[in-house]
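Q: What would this chain look like folded?
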Amino acid sequence: MTRSSAVAEARPRLVAPPGSCDCHVHIFDTRFPFSKSAPYVPDAATVDDWMAVQRRLGLTRTVIVQASPYGTDNACAEDAIRRLGPGNARGIAKLSPSGTTDAEFERLTGAGFRGVRFQMAPGDALPVAAMRDVAERAGPLGWIVQLRLDGHDLPEHEAALRDLPGTLMIDHTARFHGSGTTESPGFRALLRLVDGGRCWVKLSAPYLSSKDGYPGYADIGALTRALVAHAPERLVWATDWPHTGLRGGSKPDAAVLLDLLLDWAPDEATRRMVLADNPAALYGF
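A: My prediction, written as structure tokens:
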């Protein structure tokens, strides 16, 4: 669906509370070379570009997530944190399961990183066992282990994920490919992990798995409302800007994504929790 420039410049209806954070943003800057094994070559999406979106949405804090095209070279994300300001930005790194020194962990922590991301999606699946060394060293630093996976696979991985040390973050509302229901085995496994007290869920990128599509993403909305009702204290929100994998007019407007919270979390106090309070506690703002 094509978005007009007028729509793209519209402000959201939702007035973001002070300290609101977008917990999943990628930065692509041509000053930093992509990995030779980059899975895709994205368009530029610079810190200045993001700051314009951030102002329009009324947000003040950002979590920069290391993008796949940069591999394990976190320099672009580190530069973005520095430019946005350590008081307003945090980072999620991508690291090799082996070969990352304790000194590098310490250096990245000082640069504003508060987590490490692992891919468990089809085609780039990483065994949970391979994450253990990184998770054991990340936990004492207050880092999060962030997972990109298909929620339908959660029953298979549930026991191993529960056994991982530290704090877990499930990306993109668990990205149930082909959508899902609140009674599906994967969603029930997600709720059990959340109930364990160490697992968080990021409400983001509904376009990655919704069959119903833009602008309401009704199927993903049903899952999200169930999560909000079940454990709002374990949820954060994000745009997934600049929506890699989508092109031109197929990209959703970030203001529309923010306004989805008016439906997903109709209570103002809950929205403040998801947008501001939870990220502050989780990422150490």
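Residues 93 and 218 are 32 Å apart (CA to CA).
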